[in-house]
Amino acid sequence: MISLGIDCGTQSTKCIALDTETGRILASAQQAYGFVPHLPPGAREQEPHWWSNAADETIQSVIAQLGERKNDVRAIGVSGQQHGLVVLDENDEVIRPAKLWCDTSTEPQCAELTRKLGGVSSLIAETGLPVLPGYTAGKILWLKQREPENWRRVRTILLPHDYLNFWLTGEKRMEFGDASGTALLDVRRREWNPRMMDAIDPGLPDKLPKLSSSNPSHGPVRDALWKKWGLPSAPLVSAGGGDNMMAAIGTGNVEPGVVTASLGTSGTLFAFSTSPVVDPEGEIAAFCDSTDHWLPLLCTMNVTLVTELVREMFAWDHAKFDAAVRGVPAGADGLLLLPYLTGERTPNLPNGSGVLHGLTPRNFHPAHLARAAMEGVTLGLGYGLQRLIALGIRPTEIRLTGGGSNSATWRQICASVFGVPTVCLESGEGAALGAALQGAWTWNHENGSDESLAEFAGARVKLDESTRARPQAEETEIYRAAIEKSSRLRGALVSANLL
To answer: What are the pLDDT digits (tens) for 344-360?
Structure first.
């Protein structure tokens, strides 16, 4: 059997074809897109039809690459960038471009909702999450306040992966995992929170699709699509999920002890839990996952974004950048970077900026800046791991994904910062692989299989042992002190209204 995995990201949409018997990826295709131009500072938007067009094109390309094996395509799973706001009118037409997860223009609306609900502590007690600019709730209130004409037209609110599922099947539904990133859900009970919705608009519940488990299928592909693609019958579409939820499946992070860290443009670090993990400080997102369990998660907005800027500033290729970092000792001789170049989500500094601290004649050097950049973005994830451990997560292995994980130097820094062994996967697909695995498991499950998703994914997610790195005790102590120092520095700057 072949299952297609679609990953609708912020920069592109990718489709892969997975042979579920061998675990091999047989074909792949990718299509890039940008952002709506000329928006105000902090705003990030895309047209939803860019995603569906890209999905259509990449699916057709993959099917063409499969040749006669296209007849083995039985399932499709969709991974989507989280939190984006897609609004449809009474004719199911898109009303306006989607506001994305990285859109920070809704900070005033988030502050207003926080006040209405009694403050951050009250919010966390009620829903398990604060209301951050990245989440969907603030975007909905923004639309109501800033574009009342568009708000009056809204009949359905969807997330990006829900929109693609609707495009594929004609059915509207929202599963627990992606829904938890709206900040409208009580993550402990996996139910919409009436007080939060009422604080936005009393009519909001009528605009939300049916909420359901992540395990049942979403439905078969529409006739017009599978016939257009030249398939013999309609593939089954699984529930899908947010990109982090699908990356958890794609990295085998579906049982206790495994933690995934993604070193992409932004960064995430998340774990599997059989019970809700609610952070009273609100720094760890208390998300649900797409296996009907929970996915406590840290997200930072500045990872390879930062290292790439440094690399480009000195006109280095990646090999020279890595060599420069390796030539400087752990701790960069006291040079510390707070890497909040585009603001930050954790800590919640939507208008933050970067800070370089500890400059001396000894470390006033390009190689030291390169090391400080790589360490600084990793320390933010290390702080998140410390929070996860404080909340009861017991990591035994960190599975690395994203472009940064291609660097052996960076993998070693991660191992020492985390104090836990790190390893990469044989496949770097992450979310797309997770979507394909969920699609295949759903098809099997609805055709009589009693194999669990953890068993199914575990047999097909392969580790690349050649990439394994182990923490170095001396470096780990240096990095623990650096995490503490960066936290104190950040706190002092925030208190002084300088960050």
So the answer is: 888 888 889 999 999 99
pLDDT above 80: residue 428: no
Output the pLDDT for position 302: 93
d(CA 68, CA 354): 53
Question: Which pLDDT belongs to residue 254?
Answer: 92
* Domains and their CATH numbers in the chain: 2-243 (3.30.420.40), 252-429+462-499 (3.30.420.40)
Residues 6+ positions from 361 with CB-CB distance below 8 Å? none
Q: Are 218 and 165 in contact (CB under 8 A)?
A: yes
Measured distance CA(144)–CA(245) in Å, rounded: 29
Sequence letter at residue 88:
L
Q: Is 243 a catalytic residue?
A: yes
For 188-247, the DSSP string reads TTTEE-HHHHHHH-TTHHHHSPEEE-SSS--EEPPHHHHHHTT-SSPPEE---EEHHHHH
Measure the N-to-C terminal CA separation of the chain; round to a whole number of Å.
Answer: 53
Out of 7, 56, 103, 243, which one is annotated catalytic? 243
Full strand arrangement of the beta sheet holding 463-469: 285-288, 294-300, 267-271, 258-263, 397-401, 422-425, 463-469
Longest alpha-carbon distance in the chain: 69
Alpha carbon distance 32, 50 (integer Å) = 9
- Cα separation, 180 vs 191, in Å, equals 9
Task: Name the pLDDT band for 430 (thresholds 50, 70, 90).
Answer: confident
d(CA 215, CA 412): 37
Rounded Cα distance, 436 and 165, in Å: 14
What's the pLDDT score for residue 351? 85
**Residues 408-427: pLDDT tens digits?**
999 999 999 999 999 999 98
Q: Which of 395, 376, 375, 377 is nearest to 385 (CA)?
A: 395
User: Which pLDDT value is given to residue 19?
Assistant: 96
Residue 157, helix vs strand vs coil: strand
